[in-house]
Specification:
372 residues; mainly alpha; disordered N terminus; disordered C terminus
Length: 372
Amino acid sequence: MNNIVFDPVVNPKRHFEVLDGLRGIAALGVVLFHFMEIAAPDYRDSFIPHSYLAVDFFFCLSGFVLAYAYDGRLIQMGKWSFIQRRLIRLQPLVLIGAVIGLLAFMFDPFSDLIDSFSYWQVILLFLSACILIPYPIVPQRYNNLFHLNPPTWSLFWEYIASFIYSIYLAKASKQILWLIVILSAGLLCWESYRSGYLAVGFGGDNFWGGGIRLSFSFTAGILLFRTKTFFRQQVPFWALAAALAAVFFIPYSEIISPVIDPILVIFYFPFLIALSAGQQVLSPFIKNTCAWLGDISYPLYVIHYPFIWVFMSFVEQENPSYNDMAIIISVGMLLLVFFAYLVLRSLDEPIRRYLSKRILKNNAASNARELS
């Protein structure tokens, strides 16, 4: 296959619209998966049981995008400036999600779970959700690292990856990256065999599984960019979206999943990202669709789970029929997409613009001090 040799110096404004669109598809898959975990707790009964692999897709995409955006200019920018940019990009929604999670925990009309915890424990749960220090003290609900907003477990690892990238991976050789990828691929296979799947990393009893998942996928994403593996073949966006979504609908099997999960993560996702990164001829409609999907992906991922907790409390108390749950899930998906877009436009983007103006304007002075 012919590869597109992309030079960010020659074409610094190149944007990977299709990757934005796929990120949105993955976020939608995660939300639906979390609804279905409540409606059909046994993965064998769920029609979308493999959406937990969306996190591995996110990790790989993150490594690819960070390498594209910062390889070659991190030294001039400075490590502290890079960290500031990552905090401005990620942290506002982490805080917003923590507030939403606290409100849902306190005022859940179908549950009195909060009464099982002291005032100080609730404060610590909130602080944990804000600053992403694991605090798994809710065994009643899966012992999540961050009970108020469980999906932020992946952001915890994302921050670690950003830090390691800034101090080492940005300048690591391809040989070192290949070594990390190969070793972590072996660990990934071991973890999938040990746990029976790769839906790990979110809880106190499977904490290190998240690090293993990150180690492979994030480094593979960096290596993917460094090797300039962008395939030229033009593929319609709908076909690429379907190729990603198809993974999420693979039936769960205690025999097959431990084998197919690492195969998809190690081979299929990097190939799909490489293929999607090579797409250049897009219609205005597809570009706008991908941009919209990319815009809502992060806020949707970060703010949706407190509402899943309320849905779980409702199911536990009311025991609704499957048809009733199907209606609630359908309406809930639409409302969450709308709410995510509202949060993005009214809170996240204004906050990020404000922080960028107030903080990043001092980067030149910070860089000078760091390089002196």
